[in-house]
Fold:
Amino acid sequence: METKIFSEGQIDDAVKLLAAGELVAFPTETVYGLGAIATNEKSVKGVYAAKGRPSDNPLIVTVSDAEMMAKYAKEVPERAQKLIKHFWPGPLTILLFVKPGSLPSAVTGGLDTVAFRCPDDPLTHDLIAKLGSPIVGPSANTSTKPSPTTAQHVYHDLKGKIAGIIDGGEARVGLESTIIDLSVANPVVLRPGEITPEELSAVLGEEVLINTGKVSDQAVPKAPGMKYRHYAPAAAVMVVDDAKDFAQINFDETTGVMALDSELAKIAAPKENKFSLGQNLVDADHQLFGGLRYFDDKKNIKQIFVQGFSGSEATLAYMNRLNKAAAGHHYQAK
Ligand code: AMP
Ligand code: MG
Structure:
């Protein structure tokens, strides 16, 4: 299959493909999503096949607005209304009970809940509004690989497997949305993202719990995606929690390093084996997946040392993705 690249002006062509049941990747402010009409079971199953995604890992349903969402949610509790008013469109995914029979069970992985998201991207809004139906939108990467933040990343993973990609340039945030579970007694963040538990708590006026820990030993974890290997480049990744430890590491042709410019300047390593995470945490969020992919193209690199961050809730999303990429491996200072 030929994978067409669409520019912003060619949304109508992409809508036609989606309406016909084809798969089209689309830009959002977080990462690129792999779109398929959410009401068509065959199309939804095609998403799992294209990504190589386990079938018990449910898909996020992407809507153009809260009105569209209400057709597929069993109910929209007051908490959800508050969050939607404050954060939508934006990088917040809300887990609610699904309206029985409104979506194929392939979307929800057989669960009685469904995750809704309304991206802050005018292109995506147009696409879904013109289609008149929600689209599923998991990250548009091969399962286990870092999420794509450019159309080129999507093309690299899925060329020949999907009908098209809408090129909207680089994703602004670079890490996937925050997921909050509102199907339980107390709101819980299942995946950290740009919107922090603190911000959610301030809007809800109540405590928001965080559950992003190890769930691999639970048979049915709350966010099934969390039990799978994720964001894994070909080389082994090691988190360097304290940047001063970079000085202890011997860098050579087989090692890569990803760090802020201020640290990178102090590190003696071949230039092409250094990847800049920018000036600050916001830049690092934006660059993390691109950096992991950069080293995937360098076959000589066997190990990548990546700067870790701590100290505030704003670091949760970055560290969550980095820890998974590193399979929990942290550099131990000598
Ligand atoms: P991705 O599609 O790659 O952005 O990942 C979506 C994440 O949302 C995965 O971790 C899924 O397991 C999680 N998710 C989607 N739908 C549900 C649901 N109904 N219940 C719990 N987690 C969900
Ligand atoms: Mg993903």
